[in-house]
């Protein structure tokens, strides 16, 4: 999130997509990611404790510069990208 050259969600989503797939998302893909981000953000804003629980998992600590609800929403979007068939290399 802090690595993205621009701060707006669309630019961040495009940047993340490019990192994963070495191409830009088409309009439908971008819209689906935008919808997923907004949905996750709304859910974590409604239940901030669930964001803290999500961010407590794993060995790395959460970045204190980023609000937990926002970081949790971006983490959810990252999980979506990393679980797409196009990202996963299958033997």
Oligomer: single chain
Any low-confidence stretches, pLDDT <50, length ≥5?
none
Integer average pLDDT: 90
Helix content: 55-70%
Count structural domains. Answer: 1
Percentage of residues in DSSP E strands: under 5%
Total helical segments: 4
Main beta sheet: none
Shape estimate? globular
Distance between the termini: 31 Å
Overview of the structural elements:
The protein is an all-alpha fold and 91 residues long. The protein has one domain. 62% of the residues lie in helices and 0% in strands. It contains four helices and no strands. α1 packs parallel to α4. The longest helix has 20 residues. It is globular and about 35 Å long.
Keywords:
globular; 0% strand; mainly alpha; 91 residues
Q: Can you lay out the helices and strands and say which pair or pack?
A:
Blueprint (H helix, E strand, L loop, with lengths): L8 H13 L5 H20 L1 H8 L12 H15 L9
Helix pairs in contact: 1-2, 1-4, 2-3, 2-4, 3-4
What's the short story on this structure?
The protein is mostly helical. It has helices spanning 9-21, 27-46, 48-55, 68-82.
